[in-house]
Amino acid sequence: MSAAQGVVVDASIAVKWFLADRETDVDHALWLLELNARGQIRLSAPMHMRLETLNALLSRGMPIPEVLGAASDLEGFVLEWHDVDEALSIEAVSLAAAHDLTVYDAAYLALANRLDVALVTADRALAAAAGERHVHVVEFAPESG
Questions:
Q1: Cβ count near 112 (within 10 Å)
Q2: CA distances from 98 to 49, 90, 125 (A)
Q3: Is residue 92 part of a domain?
Q4: How many of the other CB atoms lie within 10 Å of CB of 83?
Q5: Within 10 A of 135 (CB to CB), how many other CB atoms are there?
Q6: How far apart are CA 31 and CA 35, in angstroms?
Q7: Cα angle at 55 between 52 and 60, to 5 degrees?
Q8: What contacts 115, CB < 8 A, 6 or more positions away?
Q9: 38: domain range?
Q10: Would you write out the chain's pLDDT as a tens digit for each of its 145 residues?
């Protein structure tokens, strides 16, 4: 049996897991979670994605008890969480400067580079910076039937 394909996901994807009624491509984002649960794909993210996702949910008006529930749900999704160490931070700063990104957004691309995997994001600027490393969430089409 071959190892599961890995991808890095960012907060723009994670938000879709919780705000299905306000987001696009939700079925594809949820399908990523399903593939991860089945062991068919391995979802990775830098540690700060938790905070970025929870902040986005709170700023979009999700009630605090639901945001706290989302924090627990993120743990239950069994993502591979990666520390943002000095080397990743340095690469993130370099990528941010080169592509006019925030450092915390560039950290997703830096992690994808480190792991040599694709980056799944709905953030257009981050997708453009990722170039060929970017995989659009709609490429993970849910099974029909």
A1: 25
A2: 22, 12, 12
A3: no
A4: 9
A5: 18
A6: 6
A7: 125
A8: 6, 8, 44, 82
A9: 5-83+117-139
A10: 346 789 999 999 999 999 988 888 888 899 999 999 999 999 999 999 999 999 999 999 999 999 999 999 999 998 999 999 999 999 999 999 999 999 999 999 999 999 999 999 999 899 999 988 777 655 656 665 4
Global pTM?
Answer: 0.89
* Paired tokens of 35: 């593939």
The answer to whether the beta carbons of residues 7 and 44 sit under 8 Å apart is yes
Side chain identity at residue 37, one-letter code: A
Question: Which domain CATH number covers 46?
Answer: 3.40.50.1010
Residue owning tokens 């009624």: 21
Place of tokens 């040599």: 116
Residue 94 lies in a domain: no
